[in-house]
Amino acid sequence: MSKLLRGGRISSARKDVVEFTASIKSDQKLLEAVIKINQAHVTMLLEQQIIKPSTAAKLLAALNEIDPKMKLDQTLEDVHLAVEEEINKKIPKDVAGNLHIAKSRNDQVATAIRMALRTSLHDLINLIVTLQDSLIKLAEKHTETLVPSYTHLHPAQPVTFAHILVSYVDALQRSIMRIKGALPRINLCPMGAGAIATTSFPINRERTAELLGFSAVLENSIDAVGSRDFILETLADLTILATDVSRIAEDLIVWSSPDFGIIDLPESFAFTSSIMPQKKNPDVLEVIRARMSQILGNFVISATTLKALPSGYNLDLQELTPKLWESIETVSASLYVLSELTIHLNVNKDVFSKDVLHYSTTTELANLLVKKYDVPFRMSHKIVGAVVKTLLEKKLTLLNLKSELVNKTAENVAGITLAVKQADIKDSIDPKKFVESHNTLGGPAPAEVKRMLKNRKQLTAHSKKSLETHKKGLEEADLKLKSAIHKYALTKIED
Ligand code: ARG
Q: Would 359 be classed as within a structural domain?
């Protein structure tokens, strides 16, 4: 327990109560930001002539000595006191004691979370892009690989494996856009808001914000210390991302079942049963699917914590922060494993040898009667439906279909005379031809999917570039801060 805040208003303390209330266990992630905030704050205090150059020099030199990877003393309340304690160990108390002029843990913690979060979100976007890259690489090998698409988990229509993979890439792209969209609201600086009402010292909030790489100040001081909608917004974005990741995992689980036989998991990503020697279970994917629920859980916990809190700072807010880090770590680990698995995935190129799947071309048989035999679609739908029923009753597949059955059914069901040719039927129920003919924008035709893939590759390249730009922006702010520290810490210690 830190003695810094004891002996004034509160003198006694119980270790167990402090430990219970502390945030130190999940504060490690904030240490680097808290050190920088203190450095920027001291720099600003000096430039505003609020503290003497000699004080600033000693404070900056001492702050510079703290290792941002230092293990936090777990007996302390939080990272803010941990840093202040360090400074107190390094320099005389009368100097160290001025570190906290015109700031509070309330504005400091809100600032630190925003700083750590923007970096974490850049890393997260990077992982999403890596998964997109893996999906695109796999898709390039499977633009001709025929697989059934499913509606209601029943075979619907033939597509290609690449076509499905592009659908994942696109869903992930929207997650990237949502996270990028949140960043400008995250990258605002609460410093200077103090505990809640700013300060009477003549501070310069813009300067602190600039030194910390923020795009602007989070203006209203009550809003600055008391708002956590940026956490809720991030968790909402993560929840949507997790929903997609979980759906991808679910698809892979289903497809890897021998009943479906669409994919074969790489051995290093599969597990066997302790009793059934034949088993190759998709355990990794099941863990991903389950863990993704925790993200929604954390969103709900955070939303219910925030709702009906009185305005201003409340320590309830502290309890949100670990949920944020936990969610980012959980999604990140799953994204990583999923991209590794994707690269090594084996896809069955012969799925359509299963007769039963041929029924998925039936729509095209109905289209044939419309296109070549002038039957209205609704009527054709009925005739072909009745044809399928008859085939199924006779335990036959679409491959056994004879033109006579179509013509006879047309007579029985719709009272029309048709002379459908066998060759036309053959073409319309061919899954390869089905896919090739579905060359509408966004469709499964290999040429169309190749076009989409080319475009998606440009998107991922663009994402990487814009990550670089953001990173550079933060590095520039770091340089500004470093040169200020260098200049002021080396100032001749005379006032
Ligand atoms: N550990 C706190 C948090 O994470 C820091 C702010 C504490 N402020 C206070 N007034 N007790 O939010």
A: yes
